[in-house]
Structures are given as structure tokens and as C-alpha cells.
Amino acid sequence: MSAATVIFSHGxxxxxxxxxxxxxxxxxxxxxxxxxxxxxxxxxxxxVGRLERLLDCIGQQALPPVLVxxxxxxxxxxxxxxxxxVAGLFLMAPAxxxxxxxAGGVVPEQYHPQCARVxxxxxxxxxxxxxxxxxxxxEGSRATLHLVDSDHRLESALPLLQSTFxxxxxxxxxxxxxxxxxxxxxxxxxxxPR
Length: 194
Prior knowledge:
Blueprint: E1 5-9, H1 19-30, E2 34-38, H2 47-59, E3 66-70, H3 72-83, E4 88-92, H4 99-102, E5 118-123, H5 131-141, E6 144-148, H6 158-169, E7 184-185
Parallel strand pairs: 1-2, 1-3, 2-7, 3-4, 4-5, 5-6
Helix pairs in contact: 1-6, 2-3
């Protein structure tokens, strides 16, 4: 039986070994998921290229994955979930409603991810991406929204991120998830443990 995969997408100036990914990946493994942390550092200023890379990775999965995205990775994950069905979407300070700045495109009225479970965590003190953008997204997509006393990086909220992520993964249909400890890989072509 194949394990479902949690695919992590990091932010603009971050990487696949960021603090948030490092804090959340072990939880996904404990819950029986395989883990994929995509490295977008070669696409730092190419959000559309990041989206294409994520869509390629989703296409290689046997089961619909759970997408986890932070900042620009939140936009990438949401845009991918609009194009491919996914098992869930977990977003941290996502760069939503900023397409005119991050993707050179038109800002949509709303996003329409193809999944039933969507959770967003955003800091009140975020001075990079307005928390009101996450509120707007949550209202339109019926997402669960957690506004926390933190900044864009959410480092002061890591324990809350971890407990919320564990609860987010818990209701997933575990009949398709193996009990193996998850594997963490850096890109879609690599299957070696990290």
C-alpha cells in the first residue's frame, strides 16, 4: 500500500530545510505520511516556475497529497490546489491576493482550491503579507483560520503550528496511509531519505 505524501513548499527567501518545515515534517512522518520538501531556491524569483515544479510533483504521486506552504509557498500550494485535487491544504502566512506583485498577474477575486480541508495560520504582526488577505481567503474558501500573536516568520508560534498541523492531519482517511515513518526527500526525482 502506498503512503500519501505531505509536500512542503517554502517561502521566497527560505529553503527546504527551514525552521517551519523542520518542525512540521517529523509530525507528518509520525502520522504515517511520506514527506517531500521541494527545493525552489533555483527559482527564487519565478513563482510560475515554482508552481510548475509543484504540479509535476503532484502528478508523480499515487494518492492526492497534502500541500503545506509558507509565504510564497502558500501561494504556490494554493494555485496548485486550484489545478489538481489534493487531500488538504495547510498554509502559513500565505502570499495570497498579491499576484500583481509575486506572479506578474491579475489578483483573483477569490481562490478555489480542490480540497475539503484547508487551514490557514497568520500572524497579526506580519509586516510583509497583510493578515487580512488570509481572512479574505478563509471567508471565500471556508478555510479554518488561526490569527496568532506573531510576525511573518511565525517562529514564536511554532508550538501552535505543530499542534494545529497534527490536528489537521488527524482526520485524514488513514486507510490509505501506511504506518511507516515518513521519508523526507528534497525533490521529486530523489527518493533517498534526508
